[in-house]
Request: fold
Amino acid sequence: DQIINENYMIRVGKNSGLKIQMEDGSVFDIKDESVFALKDMKKDSFSGIFKTKIRMYSGKIRAIVTKLKSTESYFIVETPTSIAGVRGTDFIVEADISESRVYVNEGIMEVKNIFNIGEPLLLSENQFSTIIKTSAPTPPSPIPAEIKKEWGLPVSDLISQKTKNDDLIKPDTKEIKTEITTEPIKDNKIETNVKK
Reply:
């Protein structure tokens, strides 16, 4: 177990993976060759307020976010092209410098273009949208079967995907080696050198 600090950039190496368990019970599963930072991680145990913001520079992440108990709580994922906000959802984000795709497995999620182009879009269970820098999010479409298979989700029915957090993320049957590097963010500018 390793503690990950706020505002550190994390690079997940090739043929690696990373699982993060938050204090509120939320779980992140990050695929290999992903680059992200935990920009905001605040909690007030007395009031039950949790504030989390992830900046996804490139790669793939699945997040199973516990239901937020306070209206002041938030969970936000930013990419180079989009902002997605949730209040208790199981979702996947794929991002690179020019395009992001947001897939909602359970719950409801609002997505919008990071440059405020077009209107925000609500995605419901089993829907996805693509967001590029120069346009609004695409209309909701069903999640493709290959995405469900990649993340170990049932292809026919995402609604039945309700298990304990410990069982939600299952690695591939092959051994996973983890290579993670962290470095402080300087002046909100990060250059990524992720090989694909």
